[in-house]
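Run log, item B.
One chain of 396 residues. Sequence copied directly from the ordering sheet:
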Amino acid sequence: MSDTSPFVGDIPSTIGCPFAPKTVQCPESLGKYLQFQTIFLDEGVSVGELRFKDYQLGGRPPSYPPKPEFCGVSLALEQCSLFDIKEGHSSPSHPNGIEESHCPPPHPNGLWYDDGSVVLKTGDNFFRVHRSILSQKSSVFATILLPTQEENTETHEGCPVVVLDDDSEELRQFLLTIYEISYFEDNARYFVYLRAILRLSTKYEMDRLRDLALQRLKRGVPTTLASFDDPKYKDDRATAQKNVLAVINIARETNCLELLPCAYYYCSRLPTGTIFEGNGGVVLASPDISACVLGRDRLLNMQRQTTHSFLYKLPTLAVGFGCKGCGANESDRLLLDYLQRQDLTRPCTFEQFTDWKKIGMCKGCAPLHQHMESRRDAWAQLPRICGLESWEKIVA
């Protein structure tokens, strides 16, 4: 039997632990026997082994296939096969599959007003602005910009200087937003801008601006499954996924806990080495690392049991197979062929499956209602999977 099998010998799992292929009987149209080996059958590895071995390998073996996109509705790109593990396989363009986000374009406003009454200094940068405007917008500014009678107060061109410890570029973006109403909408598509606004509006207690930044971030890191599925926010989700480590950190810093469940889900799809070691200088705290790694194990189990269970069952036993309109033998062949091209090593728990024809199902036999219901149930459980309270308690 092994001489005729297309998959002979052990296949390395993504956690660096070889395991024996599982042999199952398939329809006669596909041959006598196939060794049907998939990563998701590797259930004998403990979470402790996952953390240790994945970390040793930097998150994925050297021959792992390129990372497919996962912000769309398809489960995975078909050119990425579970069985296509070969030496010398091309690696992704970025070792961690994360791209740097772009910054807002340069702005002509130098934030130096001749009639300004106070100079804000941060690093080597100075901004001459109006005490009255900032004090009206923020009670914190109203306090720290109070006129002082001390003789040793530093001045610059006759204006008192107030030294702040904020990042110079973030403060510049923040001040431009305060002075120009349209500046927020013009630049809200940039994650680095939204992060600056959320951080400083929280620090200086500007609640309205904070709410604007938070609501915009929720387009990419949604709190509802309907928003997660909304095609209008596809670009926002892609941006959030590329910056997911920074999203988690700013959510912790500003106490925006509602951003964490979906951000943890995005992060659980990254290589374990990236989760542990960070990327581009952005590093997660230990509690967030644990939430992502342990959450991934639970999410994979959930999609195996409920949300995408139709992909984890043997063809002749799967729900709906054997439909006279589809043809049982053809459905068996299509499902096996489809699975060979999928990457199920990362959670796809909340991705909406749409490729029913590609696995041999028609509209009549596809378990669409069950799929949608199980996704909604799983979404409701997501915060607790990540170690948080329910959606009702964490959403502002």
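Observations after the first pass:
- Confidence is low (pLDDT under 50) at residues 1-27, 29-97, 315-322.
- The first strand starts at residue 23 and ends at 25.
Flagged for discussion on Thursday.
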